[in-house]
Design a protein that fits this description.
heterotrimer, A alpha/beta (501), B mainly alpha (313), C mainly alpha (321), A: 501 residues, alpha/beta, Rossmann fold, 6-stranded mixed sheet, B: mainly alpha, two-stranded antiparallel ribbon, 15 helices, 72% helix
């Protein structure tokens, strides 16, 4: 009854979705799987009305519809249960359920709390949640909140004629096993009221709940399998199945690193709530990749090394010396550089020009008694502009006006020119076009040759495998598996995925 | 030419256009002696605005400057006899210290700057009331002339007040453009998170910016006190609005990161021209505050960088 | 079992405990403090500030701020006084129309403030500060710096007629407090303030017209400032530009000290009542025990910073400006 026909969505430089077809029958539960960046979240946004497709059509019961915002999609019976908790925690449960639709309970300007509580109870009963509707949301457990969100979406039933399609985006990520069972049994019971699209990284769960599974890769649906013939291994191969181009990742340039005294070592380092007991050494010339799903602790490890988070236990040493003070200043002074994922927010300062950005982490090197040596800064900047082939009219150009790839080069030049020899790269190629990505790969190889130790959180698994000497796979903040010896034998995507999810 | 490219040039174009209009309407406006004395009149305001520029440049605000200046007029008057010209040091240090405390509350204690500076302003008011015994105080004319009489002399027709203002402007400009501190200020104003991720000691920089704002307010209070030969816990009232207007019409937006002290110099001159125009047009003194309030809203609206504000609270 | 001693509970009850502790402290030092007479004095001093503080409470619940109260109060007071005198000068005549007129003026100033804030996307603290300057300037323009006396006995009976030792204005203020509580907890608008303060983006994505709610909040606040202005005029019998003086700092201190967080989402008008009482008990108590009154400003300054620090969960704030 709900169908997508040949949906395309293009973002500047990227084709996010191409010719996606999708059908949902009444009361059906559909699973949607794919790697990070495969187009799942774009597809969901198209479905619930946050994005408009560039071409193709959306059909409900054979009628073509078009939504310009999520509210219009809701009026056609399409609801979304968000991955991040989207309840306002200082409000009561019933207020959250009816937020934006309170008018039905208002009599002479006064909210009839009793009526709202009754109606909320009815909604909560649909998800079998027996809680006081006037409870403050922050007092609920995560599992309860998830069910309240579901109840909130189910209010569409009363407001909309026709069928409901409900998207569940990673609904199980914060739930314990029993809670997942409960959620699933409720979802199954609700099939007479709605169809569901279930998105999750946890493959077993997708197989358990879905009638059919859509597998996405590179913005396309590569396969649709029904549950009775589905097989985890086969699906995982479909998600990643691709030949890796050795040239692309400059693998011919990869050299062995010396395993002498490590630049950086972590011994049983934990940050409560983020990751626990992580240990590894980083050597000069080594590229070490942290691999895992979103929230597996990859970024938190980088930020801890850079002093932005404080370990709750364990020991971190730089060149054999234990780190006592955790702050970005101390990290920079110890020769650590950090290339954040949010390049435009944390990487460069838009509004400052190229040379100002390059020297920002090392003003002490370019000043005497606090007075800047601007010509020295400019000379350095010109040198690095040439060395990294940064496309900018001059060192005076505002960094905010450079292309993404050139901004990334400026950030790398900032750390390299300051002499940092431990570099933490968080998604360094995110949002870059192919040429710019290759430039970044070249730079990574070149830095390795120069004896820089690199910890990388890659954009894709291929990138991780292509670039790394060592890979550590993380899941829920715990290191699952370490892969070494990449010069002779590389792990397959499948090997990694197997430990990730 | 796009709007974005003209925007940085707005302030001085405004200044010239306004100045010309006033001059056409009232040719005596261009009388050099008159211009010099008009300019000398806005020196305390200018110095206060100059300090405030640092707080706004990093994206904060300093609402305590007026009360700091009030406090300093009292300090200067009370301690002039005892310390002579050295009272200047106490005045500046007092402003600097209170500014630093506001800065500390903002950066380390996460109290938004408009609240912390407002609150510290009341602490300053308390000090002023305490020291003055809640009366208007007057300086001994002889002592004043002995220590600060030079401020109101001329060299080659240029009042020393203007020279002080120029020196302070030069100093602030040097600090902003030629020192690593100034560069860090810009980074904090334009992209605080990136400044943190570059390993800058952002807290110290922000505290210092508020302290400088306080120190300049101290200088402004001192000059004002000497000028009026006295001190009172309400003497500088009315300056806050004008100081904020001067910074904003000069082109340093509330969101920080662009503009700077030269802009504030232009902004102060714009305020001066508007005042002169109001005098010529015989706008009653009672209406001026309202007009400047409206100018303030327009200036904020024109300068603010809305891309930096995800949610406007 | 100590689980009632949570951070939440502490934040909720701490202001009341502070108030009680202060009362005990002053009463111990100077028994005269603890008398009906003095309680009435504190109540009278609190009423105008309470109205203004209630107005700004709504704004702070949304996570915004309003600094326009001094100007708004002055304008409302002055316009009220002029209209009152022009229409006959006593409540027994058509001059009673000046009362709703003052409320309308307050609403208009507030709405203007809110619309500029929302439409031009100017942060509320700066927009409202500027509007406050305009308001004070406008009041100055109207009065030319003069004082306007309102000497109608009937109107002044707000202060002069007492019932159970407390003047009528205290009961008027209590009635307005109950009204404010009703708006806060039983109307859609009031609940939407909390929704915006709890999560503006989530509220928007649930289909709330956030801009409209914001503008209405400032309008509502303006009406409460107007009530504050009327009580202030009733209290001293004079309307002038300076009628609004000090309301900004006192009301914001009261709201924050009462336990409504500057970040929005929690607190309410009962907290504000406690906060206003804390501020006025301090002011009054200091005078009663013989401390010079200039100490109050500093104490309030330190108090407001302390209150903000205590109500801030530092783990959830990246940085403030």
């Amino acid at each position: 009854m709900y169908a997508l026909r040949k949906i395309d969505k293009v973002f500047p430089g990227v084709k996010a979705l191409s010719a996606v077809d999708l059908d949902i029958g009444r009361g059906e539960i559909i699973g949607l799987v794919g790697e990070n960046g495969a187009g799942k979240s774009t597809l969901m946004k198209v479905i619930y009305g946050a994005y408009q497709p560039d071409s193709g059509s959306i059909e409900i019961d054979g009628q073509t519809v078009r939504f310009s915002n999520p509210r219009q999609a809701m009026h056609h019976g399409i609801g979304m249960v968000f991955q991040e908790q989207s309840l306002i925690t200082n409000l009561t449960v019933m207020e959250n359920i009816f937020l934006g639709y309170e008018q039905q309970f208002v009599r002479y300007g006064i909210i009839d709390w009793k009526a709202m509580a009754e109606a909320a109870k009815a909604q909560l009963a649909k998800v079998k949640l027996a809680i006081d509707p006037s409870a403050i949301t922050s007092s609920l457990s995560f599992a309860q909140r998830q069910l309240v969100e579901l109840a909130k979406v189910l209010t569409l039933e009363e407001r909309v004629d026709g069928d409901l399609v409900i998207l569940l985006d990673e609904p199980t990520s914060v739930l314990a096993r029993e809670e997942v069972e409960l959620l699933f049994s409720i979802v199954r019971d609700l099939r007479n009221r709605a169809s569901f699209i279930f998105v999750s990284h946890r493959m077993e769960e997708v197989l358990e709940i879905s009638d059919r599974i859509y597998v996405m890769k590179d913005g396309e649906v590569v396969d649709v399998v029904s549950r009775d013939v589905a097989d985890i291994d086969a699906i995982q191969h479909k998600m990643v199945g691709r030949e890796i181009d050795k040239e692309y990742y400059r693998e011919q340039l990869q050299k062995a690193y010396s395993d002498q005294a490590p630049l950086l070592s972590l011994e049983d380092v934990s940050v409560s709530g983020r990751f626990s007991n992580v240990s590894f050494d980083l050597h000069a010339g080594e590229v070490l990749c942290l691999v895992g799903t979103e929230g597996s602790g990859r970024e938190a490890i980088l930020r801890t090394i850079f002093g932005m988070e404080h370990p709750t236990s364990g020991q971190l040493s730089v060149r054999g010396k234990p780190v006592a003070r955790f702050s970005p200043q101390a990290a920079v002074a110890a020769g650590i550089g950090y290339t954040p994922r949010e390049r435009k927010v944390e990487g460069i300062v838009a509004g400052m020009n190229v040379f100002e950005n390059m020297t920002l982490s090392q003003l002490g090197n370019y000043s005497r008694a606090g007075v800047l040596n601007v010509s020295g800064e400019r000379a350095t900047a010109r040198q690095w502009i040439e060395r990294l082939a940064i496309k900018t009219p001059s060192e005076h150009k505002d960094c905010g006006g450079l292309s993404g790839g050139n901004q990334q080069k400026v950030v790398l030049a900032k750390w390299r020119s300051g002499g940092s020899d431990i570099l933490l790269l968080d998604h360094p190629t995110r949002g870059l076009d192919i040429g710019a990505k290759e430039d970044v790969y070249d730079m990574i190889r070149e830095m390795s040759d120069a004896g820089v130790g690199i910890i990388l959180v890659a954009d894709t698994l291929e990138e991780a495998i292509g670039l790394a000497h060592t890979i550590i796979v993380l899941k829920d903040g715990v290191a699952q598996q370490r892969f070494d010896g990449f010069l002779t034998q590389k792990p397959s995507l499948y090997d990694l995925l197997h430990h990730m999810i | 030419m796009s709007m974005e490219r003209i925007k940085p040039h707005f302030p001085w174009i405004t200044l010239i256009v306004l100045g010309t209009l006033v001059g056409i309407a009232n040719p005596s406006f261009f009388n050099p002696a008159g211009l010099v004395s008009l300019t000398a009149d806005v020196v305390p305001l200018f110095i206060m605005a100059l300090g405030m520029t640092f707080a706004i440049y990093i994206g904060g605000i300093d609402l305590s400057v007026q009360q700091l200046a009030n406090m300093v007029t009292v300090i200067a008057t009370v301690y002039l006899a005892q310390f002579g010209i050295a009272v200047a040091v106490i005045c500046i240090a007092a402003g600097f210290l209170i500014g630093a405390i506001s800065g500390y509350a903002t950066t380390r204690l996460y109290v938004p700057s408009f609240v912390s500076t407002l609150a510290m302003g009341f602490v300053a008011l308390s000090v002023a009331k305490y020291l003055s015994g809640q009366r208007a105080l007057y300086m001994d004319a002889e002592l004043r002339n002995a220590s600060f009489g030079w401020m109101f002399d001329n060299t080659a027709g240029v009042p020393h007040e203007l020279i002080i203002a120029a020196v302070l402007l030069l100093l602030a400009w040097f600090l902003q453009t030629r020192t690593s501190f100034g560069r860090s200020l810009k980074a904090v104003g334009a992209g605080e998170l990136a400044a943190v991720a570059s390993g800058l000691n952002v807290n110290r920089i922000k505290i210092l910016a508020f302290a400088i704002s306080g120190g300049f307010a101290g200088i402004a209070g001192l000059i004002f006190s000497v000028k009026l030969s006295g001190g009172d816990a309400n003497l500088a009232n009315g300056f806050l609005l004008l100081a904020i207007v001067a910074v904003l019409v000069g082109g340093t937006p509330l969101t920080g990161g662009v503009g700077g002290v030269l802009n504030t110099a232009i902004g102060t001159l714009i305020v001066m021209v508007i005042r002169a125009a109001m005098v010529y047009l015989e706008v009653a003194a009672t209406q001026q505050q309202m007009i400047f309030g409206i100018i303030l809203i327009i200036a904020i609206g024109l300068t603010i960088d809305r891309t930096k504000l995800r949610i406007v609270k | 079992m100590n689980n009632w001693l949570t951070r939440d509970n502490l934040i909720r009850w701490a202001p009341l405990l502070v108030l009680l502790a202060l009362i005990c402290l002053f009463a111990l030092i100077e028994p005269r403090f603890f008398s009906v007479r003095n309680a009435a004095r504190i109540a009278i001093a609190s009423t105008p500030a309470l109205m203004v503080a209630i107005g700004v409470t709504f704004i702070i619940i949304m996570g915004s701020i309003d600094l326009s109260m001094e100007g708004t109060v002055s304008v409302c007071a002055v316009i009220f006084a002029f209209a009152f005198i022009a229409l006959g000068g006593t409540l027994a005549s058509f001059a009673w129309l000046a009362l709703p007129l003052a409320l309308l003026v307050g609403a208009a100033v507030g709405l203007l403030n809110g619309l500029i804030h929302v439409r031009f996307k100017i942060p509320s603290f700066m927009c409202s500060l500027a509007i406050g300057f305009v308001g004070t300037g406008f009041a100055l323009l109207l009065t030319g710096g003069d004082r306007v006396r309102v000497e109608d006995e009937l109107f002044r009976s707000l202060l002069t007629i007492r019932f159970l030792n407390f003047p009528i204005m205290v009961y008027v203020a209590l009635a307005c407090l109950v009204l404010a509580w009703f708006i806060q907890s039983h109307t859609k608008l009031g609940r939407n303030f909390y929704a915006i303060g709890g999560g503006e983006e989530l509220a928007t994505s649930s289909g709330l017209n956030v801009g409209r709610v914001r503008a209405l909040a400032f309008m509502l606040a303006g009406m409460f400032y107007a009530i504050g202005a009327l009580l202030a005029v009733g209290r001293i019998g004079i309307a002038e530009t300076a009628t609004g003086n000090n309301f900004m700092f006192v009301s914001i201190t009261a709201v924050v000290v009462g336990g409504t967080a500057l970040w929005g989402g929690i607190g309410g008008v009962w907290n504000t009542l406690v906060g206003v009482l804390i501020v006025n008990v301090i002011n009054n108590g200091m005078v009663v025990i013989g401390l010079p009154n200039f100490v109050q400003d500093a104490v309030l300054g330190i108090l407001v910073i302390t209150a903000v620090v205590l109500s801030t969960n530092r783990k959830t704030v990246a940085f403030v400006k």
